[in-house]
């Protein structure tokens, strides 16, 4: 190896993401958003031996409680879509429990605010 | 001047960056396809370089045998037909990662090319006294004696160098493997028959090319050192600065807005005997409370899912109006 080769900035990952997903596509009815919460199913000890290292570390990561999809992707250092494909496969296999994100706080109806504002203006304005 | 394989590696890095940048987008699927094609292109370039005594590419870090096998898998067209059935807890030394992956990719390419599209190619990795064996079994038509003799010749040192003697179009898989074996000190044999009637190719990696498994990344270590949460039991107020998932625990810098700020200032003179809670303490109590509610929800996932869905529906309906 010459010096110029050693100075190469970095190499891409040895295992390519399409191999990690095994060429699977994300299903159309995608149930995962960035803030969907995921945890390992209670009986995850009986997981099969044929899970990839990525799937195993994903399950391990989720075994302590709920984690959001965004956090999982950050830790696995994989593209978001790839993580979603893995999550989808694991959820279908029953190894993961997903929970819809916490509902947004209810917004106050703009019309009511406007009416209050109008009323205040009518009285004090 | 850049070599072809160097350019392919550079392009692979660019594609990797795109994949993480547009990981949420629908174009990710296309990026994965481009990545796949680029890997095949890079492999072809590497193979030709090997035959011409050229540069194989940059050295990799130590990688597990399993990852080297998967890397090889990613370099062939029909990678989805390859199944890795067993693995070992060994890693390949950084010097040997690329040559072994390339040699294995050539074997896998042969295995998938000379077998029916609906059959799978099986890989078994076994520890043997001399090192480890990577066994590739296909369900193809196998090779006749003439083909076996040609393969054995190409895999041995008797082969002629260069691409001229490899036919037109050149069939250089075995020749490439032969050169790599000689240069890096592993052996490949293709003279046995697979249980499915096809070819059984065996790559023997000697101990010199093997090493212990690479250190797991730091997050994995954090996970292993912190005891796992007991979801059913009450959680003590944890003093650790990371959660069981290895995430840094968030510390609240200020009092939460919903807590009346007067409680501390007005309450302090009356309860002079009890010390005021520090921010960390308050945070850990809040955290314990949150984990408690979470474990409660985790125990009953079904109803929790339903209620949150109901919330969703109501809030969505509200936004629409």
TrEMBL record, chain A:
Say which domain of life the source belongs to: Bacteria
Against InterPro entries, the record matches this protein to: DUF742
Put simply, this protein is called: DUF742 domain-containing protein
Organism, as annotated: Streptomyces olivochromogenes
TrEMBL record, chain B:
Output one GO BP term: phosphorelay signal transduction system
- Per the record, what are the reactions this protein catalyses? ATP + protein L-histidine = ADP + protein N-phospho-L-histidine
Q: Where is the composition biased (Polar residues)?
A: 221-231, 262-275
Protein name per Swiss-Prot or TrEMBL:
histidine kinase
Enzyme class, top EC level, equals transferase
- InterPro entries, sorted: HATPase_C_sf, HATPase_dom, TCS_sensor_his_kinase
Q: Where is this region: Disordered?
A: 213-321
Which keywords are on file for this protein? Kinase, Phosphoprotein, Transferase
Q: Name one GO cellular component term.
A: plasma membrane
- Known Gene3D superfamilies for this protein? Histidine kinase-like ATPase, C-terminal domain
GO MF term set: protein histidine kinase activity
**EC numbers:** 2.7.13.3
Tell me where in this chain the Histidine kinase/HSP90-like ATPase domain is found: 100-207
Biological classification of the source: Bacteria, Bacillati, Actinomycetota, Actinomycetes, Kitasatosporales
